[in-house]
Structure formats: C-alpha cells, structure tokens
Amino acid sequence: MPIGVKRDDGVALVTIDRPEALNAFSLELLGELRERLSELAHDEAVRAVVLTGAGDRAFAAGADIKFMSTLSVLEAREWGGLGQATALLLETMPKPTIAAINGFALGGGCELALACDLRYAARSAKLGQPEVNLGVIPGWGGTQRLARTTTLGFAKELVLTGRTVGAEEAERHGLVNGVFEPEELLPKTLEVARGLASKGAVALRWAKEAANLALQGAHESNLAQEANLFALGFSTDDQKEGMAAFAEKREPRFTGR
Ligand code: CO8
C-alpha cells in the first residue's frame, strides 16, 4: 500500500510510503494519493487531514525523475495535470489540510506541501524547487503557490536558482508555520489537527473557502463573499452552540450542523 491512511479522532493521517526512493512520486503513487484524498474530502467523519512521508529522510523528493525522463510532451502535460489536480484537492477540500514535512520536500513534494493549508517541518527538513537543475520548471503549482505563500522575491530565488533551504530559513520566509525537533513533528502536528477537528466543521469549511480568495480576484467581491459566508454561519447549530457556550462559560460541543 504506497499511500497509508489512518483515521483517529476525526483526523486522517496520510503517509506517502515509498521510502526507498525518498517517497518520489511514481504514476501509481500519485494516482493513489489523489484517490485517497478525494475519498477523505467527502468523508464527513474526517475533519482534518495530515500529509507526511514514510521514514525519517523525506516528505517527498519530488516527482520520479527516472519515470519522467521517458515522457512525451503530451504525457508530460497529463502528468502535470494529475499533480495539479492533487494539489488543488489539498487546497480546496472543505476541511483543513496540514503537511508534516519530515525530511526532503523537493520539487513536487514541496508543491504538494504548499497546497496544504498549514505546514510544519522537522528541524532537519530541506525544502526547495530544484527543477531548473533538471532543465524544466515546477509544474504542480510551485511557480504560483510559493510566491503566494512567501514573497515573489524569495519564490523567484528558489525557483530560478534551484537552491534548497533548511527548515529554519523556510520558517523565516513564511514557507512553514513552525519547526519542531524531528521526533516531535508528528505528535505536535497531530495535536494541531485534533484541535482543528474539535472546532465547528462548517465554520472551518467557510473560513478556508473565504481565506482561499484572499490572493485572487477582486478585493471588494471577496469581502462581499466573506460577508455572505459570515451571515450563513447564523443558519447553523454550531453558531448557536458556540455563542451559548461562551455565555455559559463552558466548552462548546460542535456537531458540524
Ligand atoms: N525521483 C526518482 N528517484 C529519486 C528521487 C526522485 N525525485 N529522489 C531520490 N530518488 C531515489 C534515488 O535515485 C535513490 O535511489 P537508488 O538508491 O535506487 O539509486 C534513492 O532515492 C535515494 O536517493 P539518493 O541516493 O540520491 O540520496 P542522497 O541522500 O544522496 O540525496 C537528494 C538526496 C538530495 C534528495 C537526491 O536524491 C536528489 O537530489 N533527488 C532529486 C530531487 C529533485 O530534483 N526533485 C525534483 C524532481 S522534479 C519534480 O518534482 C517536478 C514536479 C512537477 C512535474 C510536472 C510535470 C509536468
């Protein structure tokens, strides 16, 4: 099973499991990841998704270079489309997604991490977009999401030079949200995920939807959409429960309705 999925406490832990190739994406591995993510996107019992890599060396060292070396132009276009669709699922599924970057996150590995809502890295992790060293460019969203997540200047530096950065430098540029000792990465990330899973699922879904608009489209229509989604919150049981719990000085019990 190249993609492991473990469900616990409303959190799905998805593991890219091909450590002998530093979790590089073969066609089979990427296709299976997209399938599993698509199932999790529709599974109401799953309220947060954590993506990580098997072993202690890599999150994912990118797309499989040996496989790609044989592609025709049309096949490369399809391969790019599959990676982009997988990244888009992480970015738009109606629940939070978190990358636990336990080692190398290079090329397509970095691009899938960038598509997650949050990123935490082990202090030993290395991130980058080294495609230029292979004579190509990032193809699973890296030319866009790296700039949106950090700055255009930093993104251009990584994409044009192919330089990889350590976790601490990544954190300074906003590429990761936090850095943990390697043995603490997964427990800490799962703790964040369980915290998210305990919140109102509908509010999280709409908060993510509104936040995803922030760097695209027209500011005023995005604000109007935010106002609509805010108002829609008043149609839910979770809004009544959240506000009643505050008034009664107790923890809310959200049902996702
Ligand atoms: N593809 C295939 N195999 C890989 C990959 C990869 N990306 N990365 C590592 N491996 C394999 C190695 O070949 C090796 O296998 P073997 O033992 O059979 O020779 C095994 O993993 C261990 O790797 P190394 O021996 O190289 O380990 P090192 O510790 O010496 O080096 C590195 C680790 C620095 C991570 C090194 O493996 C490396 O540079 N890997 C390639 C990183 C890279 O360039 N990634 C970007 C790939 S391109 C990409 O992701 C584009 C995505 C968008 C595609 C869009 C298409 C349209």
Describe the protein's architecture and organization.
- The protein is an alpha/beta fold and 257 residues long.
- The protein folds into two domains: 195 residues, 2-enoyl-CoA Hydratase, Chain A, domain 1, CATH 3.90.226.10; 47 residues, Lyase 2-enoyl-coa Hydratase, Chain  A, domain 2 (Orthogonal Bundle), CATH 1.10.12.
- It has eleven helices and ten strands.
- The protein has a six-stranded mixed beta sheet with strand order 1-2-3-5-7-10, sandwiched between helices. Strands 4-6-8-9 form a four-stranded mixed beta sheet.
- A hairpin with a 2-residue loop joins β1 and β2.
- It is globular.
- Octanoyl-coenzyme A (CO8) binds next to α2, α3 and β6.
Secondary structure topology:
Elements: E1 3-8, E2 11-16, H1 27-42, E3 48-53, E4 58-60, H2 65-68, H3 73-92, E5 97-101, E6 104-106, H4 108-115, E7 118-122, E8 126-128, H5 142-149, H6 152-161, E9 164-166, H7 167-172, E10 178-180, H8 182-197, H9 201-211, H10 219-232, H11 237-247
Parallel strand pairs: 2-3, 3-5, 4-6, 5-7, 6-8, 7-10
Antiparallel strand pairs: 1-2, 8-9
This protein binds octanoyl-coenzyme A (CO8).
Octanoyl-coenzyme A is lined by residues 21-22, 24, 61-66, 76, 79-80, 83, 104, 106-108, 130-131, 134, 138-140.
